[in-house]
């Protein structure tokens, strides 16, 4: 098919600089060949891993990456419909590929289709080879890894499914999972998928209060946890946190507790020992037959206002998008060992530790430790020992390891690595080069991947692209198939052409996109589809460079990115506001070389309270108690008042400048009710340095 029009005028001018990467496939070997006729039982279905030549085999009218991209945009239903039939196992074929409306925020994919995600992630690989390794659990102590085959994962998943059923969990019920990365956490997620329950994984670093508010918002019936976590040589009291949280959660009927350390921990009348309960259950559980648009999971993420939102993903579209991006962006094939070191409590863990790799039948890593435990060589020693082929990590960890020096990397044989990925925040050029040279020995493909909890999978990344295409340091560059980025200006106008900066929006629906915010579709619409009518607004700013490549400039709203974790400044303000001494607070991010962004809190105290070390310690403590350790402000500046306009609005622009040390360039302060406040702010800021 000929593209109807080029959706990327900006990319027309791209020069693909061809060079040969040793051992990589040429993309010319399938030109002109015809695809085999497709049937649901075709062997190609079972073996398909969707590299560029294979995509061209499927869409034979396309002879280049650009033509494929154009097809994915102009003939969306043809593109996604073909891939959905080929990559997923269906109980019933779908009748319509998509029914999407950017005005109402209604998105449905693969209508009429029925399938089960757990069957796609486990059963079909177990049928082929039950002894293939599905999971490598890289425990906190190096050298203690445990392998779980697809056959074993099948049994574990079914046993957990049967335990959930015996506890009365039914299709559509919500199950909270508060566990670090471990095989039972994966089995629990898949068990929910198997019986049609909706999981809500809560990062196991969140406090009891944060956990309780997420459980209550989802009205979860069950919480699955472990006795303790082990990370960086320290014990984490998971069960204790759950017991405290559940006191405030009337909907929870059962706490399933897996054994990690076996140490005695606080108990509750709702407890059931998960390991014991599993032994009593069968290792077979009939998978529920689910509609494409039934809910698969929800995952809470921060926005600029209010409480964290439960982003909802559904079955077929999410799985297709996670699995396709996983194989194409990382060049991940059967037999590979994929090492994503993210926690399963974040979207990266959902899409690229669990669903993407398992749907593709590869071996996936569950990393329980930290980048520096027991020493800063931990990632590299793990890569050598497990022969990891693709590593996917956060820039904050890369920057940290860079500082420790090259000797920690050079000790190890990293020749198994082919792709190095980064995600979560912009990767600075220095860190990118270090990753490329010192870790990748300039032989790996380095991919800075941009995406979000809401997008389900990677949306902008240097790959897929024509083999040998150039890769620029520090930017995600190219849109994924089916992703059509747009840059919008201040007045909501689309900025066409290159060399433009503005709000990053996506112009076309894609299968992996979020469907709603749990319980509040109006907030979903307001947040993502109202700011720019007809577009999905990402919340990020971006530049489209002169050559058409995209670079992310950072959040445009009051969300900050701390060590790759997304945090709403309003959440921290709400927590601070609960301390009896606090009259008012305003929290902003500031550039921080280690963490990406640091957290700077300006606080005014009520009369009668003094700014002393004890108050500051209590303020830090309350943030830890209400949210999590990563949300604790780096700087607390107690001040006499905050800069406000005459109408009483806090001028955050000034607070950001002061926090960033840009005090010579504060801009127009004439609209402030009391411009003298600024002098005081700057003077106090200087004393903190
Ligand atoms: O600001 C962007 C930043 O992380 C945000 C999404 O956060 P979250 O939903 O927690 O998902 C993180 C993992 C996918 C984005 O709005 N972000 C993510 N990746 C990048 C990035 N910023 C710059 N470059 C990236 N590669």
UniProtKB/TrEMBL annotation:
Against Pfam families, the record matches this protein to: ACAS_N (PF16177), AMP-binding (PF00501), AMP-binding_C (PF13193)
SUPFAM superfamilies referenced in this protein's UniProt entry, alphabetically: Acetyl-CoA synthetase-like
Source taxon at top rank: Eukaryota
Kindly give the Gene3D superfamilies that the UniProt entry links to this protein. Answer: 3.30.300.30, N-terminal domain of ligase-like
Q: What is its EC number?
A: 6.2.1.1
AMP-binding enzyme C-terminal domain mapped to chain residues: 571-649
Kindly indicate whether the keyword 4Fe-4S belongs to this entry. no
Is the keyword ATP-binding in the record? Answer: yes
Q: Which residues form the Acetyl-coenzyme A synthetase N-terminal domain?
A: 66-121
Question: Which Gene Ontology terms cover its molecular function?
Answer: acetate-CoA ligase activity; AMP binding; ATP binding
Q: Which family does it belong to?
A: Belongs to the ATP-dependent AMP-binding enzyme family.
Q: What's the name of the protein?
A: Acetyl-coenzyme A synthetase
